[in-house]
């Protein structure tokens, strides 16, 4: 009986988290968007992302990173489970190897770059289903429709 109650509570919390992921605060005004500090356009954005991934992936030397869109100025609105992010956004599809050495499939990810560093990301291998949804939506906003 206790296992069923714990399982039901876990399901309820999971459903609530997915529901809350869509709860946004008021979006920034156009004036606020123009005033944000995005930092300079990162000419070497591919290298910046690869350097960031070096410490995040199982096998960074064998991982396949395909850059699909960006960099473009982007503001991610503040939500219940994601903080506001501001920077040059880059959409990439990342295929890392699993612990058995096999490629695990491409996953979308969006990286926010400011002043030469990745300051936030959505999607990829270390982010859950909410992050994957953010990455898909942001890639689309950047001009790449994730298959």
Write a compact overview of the structure shown.
The protein has 147 residues and is of the alpha+beta class. It is built from 4 helices and 4 strands; from the N terminus they run H-H-H-E-E-E-E-H.
Question: How would you portray this structure in words?
Answer:
Mean pLDDT is 84; it is low at 9-22. With 147 residues, the chain is α+β, with helices and mostly antiparallel strands. Strands 1-2-3-4 form a 4-stranded antiparallel beta sheet. The chain starts with a helix and ends in a 5-residue tail after the last helix. 33% of the residues lie in helices and 27% in strands. Strand 3 and strand 4 form a beta hairpin.
Pick out its properties.
147 residues, four-stranded antiparallel β-sheet, single chain, alpha+beta, 4 helices
